């Protein structure tokens, strides 16, 4: 029952070919800090992507098919227009785009390249030194392609590896005639950031990326984002993180202008928002924080900016400040393994007459499942917990865009994919309106006397104290209770706060019925320096636990 | 490379299950003319659909699989809540929902049922007499299920056919545990309206319906419709026409309130729009006309209503009147064979600063290809015609939701599916902005001296004359030119117009550069009665050609 009409494939070429045909003059802008700015558009990008196809052929790259990976092509780059071209050209050729997190330790980067067995390495010229180390250790890499804004370049050589320059390859190439691939051809590969243990490999097919883009695009068209064809997108999620949450695909799908800001310079990003009329962007809470509290920020009118936040819990104070500045915020939730988006805090039909405050409260949740995503929240025996917004369980998910497995790790794979569901390892509650509230990573839940305390929720409560800049709560072994919470608090610059004040403040919240008394931390440690972060900007609790070897009794 | 996580299927249960889980209290309203109104919601509908599953099992219905049709279930019904339940329950069971156009001649209805070999017939009680005729001739039908709003009912018997009552079946049934189907299971079957020859059978899989709903929903979120989660949908396209253009699926996908108006009574429909807060609906131009010119219409404030028009060309005067009433109109284009939507007149990113008039002009086109749809406009040799908005060619299409074939008609199938593309048999021009303008059905193009005249375009021009109510242009054999156009004109009630006046008016348009002089019809026939229509409300040119046996010389 298969024919070429009936089984028209969900492949990435459908997005960029269409954009070139219907939205040829809509801009795709390459705007690295300080410039020079390159103003391309969908017609020109389609031409460059076709030439990239021929360049890949010249480099000896092999296409794959369902069940067989094409050549893995590693990329070390910021958010640039060439990275955008690789997002399309490599998968459309049938090869696998391996986006590499440049913020990982070199040791971990090398580990991921060894796992992926990449054949070609595309690098931004900022990473030439790193690439030398990498190629000396990862013997599968035979070719390096350097991406630079400079048309003139010095000779660069690598031991045992051929060096090419991206712009030379593109300039000399003919437009490639991309094949009609099966939608089940693997398109991308990337590794989890690995707050626990080594990075784990995940991969995604064309079909998965197209369906993810469709579902997220549809969800973003709902309030509070009301995404629109008149929006201008600038991905601030690094493109080496899970498809920049799909924004380069979504923006192409709907045919809107895109702006690529290069490496991340927040003063420059603020200027681009104004100069290029950017209206929609994304990032972890830290990125939103950077935009709001940059010294230049007060100079800019950010009203109407649409911000998709995710990656770690959104602090209430940050949401309130963003709202004060007129920014529309939606929170998304997902994992590298889920491509990433599975939940989004879009509004529902029954909320039309809700006051704005009540609607905004839901933006602090992880959201509703987006179209085509099924979820459950289950206890240790796999039974659904009550949807009461209180009872904690593990979030499990089914969707057309979950990675098939962890690369080279059948044991971890068996552990995560059980009983027909992918297990997220996140502890959540589900409320009666359908919004999921992530309470903790399973490993960060504090198990005190048989009850669970959500470290994230407790952090959220402590962060409402006006003098608190940052807070992390960790579980510390306790002889009687098994574990008890300890809070590490960083006061705002120029302000002071004591353990006593924090404990009194929390007792006030207890009296207001906002938390149980037994959640009050056994210890509050005040520190002056910023908390240690992972490469994705999340507080690194592993390091914190090592640093604060606290004994409770 | 197949596993249950990776290959999560695009099946219709994903839409209604999710709606019941996340939008349980959002209303689904059954509102037949004069009432009584039944207020259901997604949670209750999910319960009734599960019971319908058990009823289908009790009726001995067989599920299908890819490559093998399940039992065909024919439905004769208006736009009711039970029809909505069948839209989900029958395909989710694995059977094939055959929606029957009740406006076809009984002979054609019987023809389609013989072609489909339906096993069970679900009928609105309005169609008991028709069903008696049908079942006496279509021997594959063993069971009839009568759908009625009355809970008490008299005994009804059919010769040789068992009779059931829908509400009795549902009341007595347990919730059915629907199977996890392959997305390539056939879900629906329907027949083209057959303006030429016998109706032709088409069919669609779960995957096709889900992808169609996603793509149309995303397109409708763009201006000028700006569809939103706060919309309230009422399908006015009869549900026996190509999935009511997908609206019952789209509304469920995004979780908005739905209203089903029963058989079509335009005064009642206007009242429902007001009483139920309906904001989005759809239909052929005649339906829009009925809403605007109904005697009760002036009593109603239609500002903000969103109307998706299609099925035949939208007259300019109708669009202008709708705009005056504050209705937002978008035109869609498609065929029964295309599920149906492939084009929609959504706006594009580069039109932000266009004046409203210029944007509205594009609503008169057939639109842009929606996401995942590829099109070409080709000449007789299969070569792309220039995208100049002038050169005519045939519109050909590829999309994930084209029917696989014409049922039992390999010759017609081979003729339509050629060179990798589905041939629409529609003559179009494509403009530089990407909008397609349908000029004619291939058979209605008038070939005059080797050049093509679009009868539709000529009708559109003649209809701008202030005294013209309706117009049709047909090609009439001509000894010298091969064919020449003849116009049949119906003046507005109470107004008069002569052939002379129409010809002078057109000469004025020629002088303004709006049409070539050789397009002026050789004859203009003024008639007082309405033009004959097909069951889908289109002017029946076959009948017109028979009625006006004109000889030109």
UniProtKB/TrEMBL annotation, chains A, B:
Keywords: Fatty acid metabolism, Ligase, Lipid metabolism. InterPro entries: AMP-bd_C, AMP-bd_C_sf, AMP-binding_CS, AMP-dep_synth/lig_dom, ANL_N_sf. Pfam families: AMP-binding, AMP-binding_C. Residues 458-538 form the AMP-binding enzyme C-terminal domain. CDD domains: ttLC_FACS_AlkK_like. GO terms for molecular function: ligase activity. Belongs to the ATP-dependent AMP-binding enzyme family. This is AMP-dependent synthetase and ligase.
């Amino acid at each position: 029952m298969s024919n070429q009409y009936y089984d028209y494939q969900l492949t990435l070429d459908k997005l960029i070919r269409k954009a070139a045909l219907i939205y040829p003059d809509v801009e795709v802008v390459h705007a690295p800090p300080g410039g020079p700015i390159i103003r391309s558009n969908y017609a020109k990008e389609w031409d460059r992507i076709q030439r990239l196809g021929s360049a890949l052929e010249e480099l000896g790259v092999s296409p794959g098919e369902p069940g067989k990976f094409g050549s893995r092509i590693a990329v070390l780059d910021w958010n640039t227009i060439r990275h955008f071209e690789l997002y399309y050209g490599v998968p459309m050729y049938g090869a696998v785009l391996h986006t590499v997190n440049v913020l990982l330790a070199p040791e971990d980067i090398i580990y991921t390249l060894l796992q992926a067995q990449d054949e070609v390495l595309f690098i931004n010229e900022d990473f030439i030194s790193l690439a030398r180390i990498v190629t000396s250790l990862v013997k599968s890499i035979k070719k390096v392609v350097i991406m630079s804004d400079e048309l003139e370049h010095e000779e660069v050589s690598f031991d045992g590896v051929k060096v090419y320059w991206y712009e030379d390859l593109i300039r000399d190439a003919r437009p490639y005639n991309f094949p009609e691939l099966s939608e089940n051809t693997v398109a991308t590969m990337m590794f989890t950031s690995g707050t626990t243990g080594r990075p784990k490999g995940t991969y995604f097919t064309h079909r998965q990326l197209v369906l993810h883009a469709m579902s997220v695009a549809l969800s973003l068209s709902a309030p509070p984002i009301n995404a629109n064809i008149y929006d201008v997108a600038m991905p601030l999620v690094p493109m080496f993180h899970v498809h920049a949450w799909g924004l380069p695909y979504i923006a192409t799908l709907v045919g809107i202008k895109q702006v690529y800001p290069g490496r991340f310079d927040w003063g420059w990003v603020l200027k681009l928002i104004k100069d290029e009329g950017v209206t929609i962007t994304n990032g972890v809470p830290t990125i939103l924080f950077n935009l709001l509290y940059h010294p230049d920020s007060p100079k800019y009118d950010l009203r109407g900016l649409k911000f998709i936040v995710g990656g770690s819990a959104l602090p209430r104070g940050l949401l309130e400040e963003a709202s004060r500045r007129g920014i529309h915020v939606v929170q998304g939730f997902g994992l590298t393994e889920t491509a990433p988006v599975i939940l989004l805090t879009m509004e529902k039909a029954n909320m039309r007459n809700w006051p704005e405050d009540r609607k905004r409260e839901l933006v602090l949740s992880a959201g509703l499942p987006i179209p085509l995503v099924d979820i459950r929240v289950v206890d240790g025996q796999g039974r659904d917990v009550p949807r009461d917004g209180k009872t904690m369980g593990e979030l499990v998910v089914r969707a057309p865009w979950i990675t098939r497995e962890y690369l080279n790790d059948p044991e971890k794979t068996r552990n995560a994919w059980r009983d027909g569901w992918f297990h997220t390892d996140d502890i959540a509650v589900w409320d009666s309106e359908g919004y999921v509230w992530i309470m903790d990573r399973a490993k960060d839940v504090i198990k005190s006397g048989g009850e669970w305390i959500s470290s994230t929720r407790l952090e959220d409560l402590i962060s409402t104290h006006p003098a608190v800049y940052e807070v992390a709560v960790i579980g510390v072994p306790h002889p009687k209770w098994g574990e008890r919470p300890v809070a590490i608090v960083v006061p705002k610059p120029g302000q002071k706060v004591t353990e006593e004040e924090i404990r009194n403040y929390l007792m006030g919240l207890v009296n207001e019925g906002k938390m149980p008394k037994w959640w009050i931390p056994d210890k509050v440690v005040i520190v002056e320096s910023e908390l240690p972060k992972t490469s994705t900007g999340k507080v690194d609790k592993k390091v914190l636990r090592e640093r604060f070897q606290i004994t409770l009794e």
